[in-house]
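Example complex used in Figure S2.
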Amino acid sequence: MSTPRLEVKKTYKLFIGGKFPRSESGRYLPAHSVAGTHLDNYAHASRKDFRDAVVAARSAAGGWSRATAYLRGQILYRAAEMLQNRSGELVSEIARSTGAGPAKARREVSLAIDRLVHYAGWTDKFAQIFSSVNPVASPHFNFTMPEPTGVVVVLAPDEPALLALVSLIAPVILSGNTAVVIASETFPLPAATFAEILATSDLPGGVVNLLTGQRTELAPHLATHMDVNAIVDGTGIAELQTTLQGGSAVNLKRYTRRDLKAADWFADRAEDPYWILDTVEYKTAWHPMGV
Amino acid sequence: MKASALFWKRPESLRLHAPLVPTIDQIMVEERANAFTKRSLKTSAKLAGLKMAVSMCDLTTLEGKDTPGKVAYLCRKAVQPIDAKYEVPPCAAVCVYPNLVKPARMFLGHHSPVKIAAVATGFPSGQYPLRTKLEEVRRAVADGADEIDMVIDRGAFLTGEHTRMFDEIAATKQACGAAHLKVILETGELVTYDNVRLASEIAMRAGGDFIKTSTGKVSPAATLPVTLVMLEAIRDHFFATGVRIGMKPAGGIRTAKQALAYLVMVKETLGDDWLTPDLFRIGASSLVTDLLMQIVKCTEGNYQAADYFSLP
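Predicted assembly (603 residues):
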């Protein structure tokens, strides 16, 4: 009689600067399905992991923001391709975590892919559409155009764990920002798997950094970090919003709330090109005519 | 005075050849050095360590594009690195090329806590005639340098001309007069730890007040293991002669965490006596920004961004 094979349990790690480190704190948390079975373990990020992620995001910001819009589009599209290739993995990850049927899980993954493709298309278009040539009372050309704001912290809501995450990250990074993303707290595994897929796409290390753990523990540090330029908060949790907004005052970082209900993330609302504008700064340049 | 006249300073009994200095166990020195990075410094001890590190910094600019303006900026930063409310001591010195000693002295005046160090003797290669090297040193001292950072002739050392190296250091020390002499070994070019140990020994016996790892122009520059080898040479020299030689790692130390590891290593190898800017320096430029960021973090509680600090 053969003994049953011992299952290999995985510990999902953080994604910082293109690498997969354990939490500096050595902590991890168990991930459970909705039914309560222990699925796997995942890293429990500390404030120092967050600090490291910001350093990684800051050092990636220069190169990523200088990459041509065309290249950024190609890279995001490539990420969508990788997602497509490995969609089976994500479908089963969502299904076993949330208890959703395969059809529902597949719908979420397909939409996430579509959304990446959608935003990939915006990289070389948003600047034309949201820039302007301004009439001025002197012989000057006067242009106003968007530039990335820098390092952006993105907080994903608990559900839908993958689709909301992708819908929040894409409009942030397409303009040349880099992101530190705090994954869904109840269903962190789809996000961690998404990070593993991103690592095999052409996205430069540090452009997207993913932390799993407890939001309330990290929130004060996210909010008051001087090297964070903006926060995009998709959690919809009032208490968290207060902490984040309060702390943001120290360096006047941009704070944006996206209070969407779980179902709204599946709708057109979540592919709003105006979301791009929440993490850009407008620059106006004067250029003398005839020179 | 001819350099050869200084031969007498070399103890007759000591022949500076490799077998007479201890050999270095590469694996263990690297293991031991790595252990210093594992110490945990928290709260008040960390803050004290960070401030001490600032007070030991030789704020350095060694570029072809250096100007009196840049040096004045550096001097201002050295005198008061940050807002007075953080109670950060001034840096130990500014380290510049010989031509910029005069502007630095003009800016700092004659009673500044910040010293002026000039690199000299054909920095960074040292491949120049002794005569011009000594002239360079005398000019820098006359212009107001408190300290001279000389480079050794690595070529001479590596071809085994240890006595020539000894004599050059001794002659340079004489040219320095009252100014302190730091001897740059350029460990990145010495290839082995055994060579570093031997070169340290020669530099200390020839009259160097400090031994210094690197010019910053060669990679690898300062590393923990190479600094440990030099610290142990200093310790053994102290036991043998009772003379305290200073240590200056330079180049490649960019983060506060690294700087604290160096301080821990000095304390655990040489003891508290060496934890003073008179006997321990760090040659750096961007390090100070990170130290200041960590000091503000320790004081205010939130993580800082380089955007809010002066340029390195």
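Chain A has a mean pLDDT of 96. Chain A touches chain B through eleven residues (CB under 8 Å).
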